[in-house]
Amino acid sequence: xxxxxxxTPEPAVxxxxxxxxxxHDVVAVVTRQDAxxxxxxxxxxxxxxxxxxxxxxxVIRADRLDATVTAEIAALQPDLGVxxxxxxxxxxxxxxxxxxxxxxxxxxxxxxWRGAAPVQHALIAGDARTxxxxxxxxxxxxxxxxxxxxxxxxxxxxxAGSLLSALAEDGAGLLTDVVDAxxxxxxxxxxxxxxxxxxxxLGDDDGRVRWDEPADAVLGRIRGVTPEPGAHTTISGVRLxxxxxxxxxxxxxxxxxxxxxLHGGKVVAGTTSAPIVLDTVQPAGKGAMRAxxxxxxxxxxxxxxxx
Length: 307
What we know:
Blueprint: E1 2-7, H1 13-20, E2 25-31, E3 35-37, E4 42-44, H2 47-55, E5 59-61, H3 67-75, E6 80-84, E7 102-106, E8 114-115, H4 118-125, E9 129-136, E10 146-153, H5 160-184, E11 198-199, H6 215-224, E12 231-235, E13 238-247, E14 260-263, E15 266-269, E16 276-283, E17 289-290, H7 291-296, E18 305-306
Parallel strand pairs: 1-2, 1-6, 2-5, 6-7, 8-11
Antiparallel strand pairs: 3-4, 7-9, 9-10, 12-13, 12-18, 13-16, 14-15, 15-16, 16-17
Helix pairs in contact: 1-2, 1-5, 4-6
């Protein structure tokens, strides 16, 4: 089949590479415009654009799938559109332009966590299982019939970054299997079953650590916003990024929510239940460091984390 692939960030790259290695013909890749990155704001191609150019696939750069992009895609006469984390909506008439429409690899077990940040919300909510789904794109948000899914247990120490990377690799195989089935005429889809939940895009405030929550919720939030938008708290009014955390040992002292202490060479922080361990932090204006090293540089002997 002739495929058009739409995607932008790193988690979409395994799917593009997997499809490019099949007998299908990826006739074009659609990705968002080069974006300014880093302190010097250097215009940088998206990870998908970089991969596509390495693979020798023509790239269409567009932040909106407007009439011009629709005409470019229609001229390629695609049999199927494939989208993985492109970062924009596919509307009519583009939705119906490929002969088989569009399919989407989404990183959740639909209808749970429709929307922009499914992996992050799954961790924040404390979901024990998650996965990936390939579904038919329809005008309603992530509401189309499902062709296939895979489910995994969420690792206890998973961050959004590590979990998304794992699902991106496994999901690439699932997506390729569905594309093959559509080409063979053997694909079967089913309606989504259950009450939908929604995963809105996260902002800076979502990364604010709520010390007045139980330990599981605090750990889930920190891991769910790592690496983006990033977890943070304040110490004596100064922002501190929280990069890595762990459950505290059983003999750790009970602390009031937000209170910090050094125990067994590790920095522990209080919640409304058990304390947690701060493994790695990043003070304002400095690089990442072990929390114990940060602690030793404090002048305040009894710091308390604020919201």
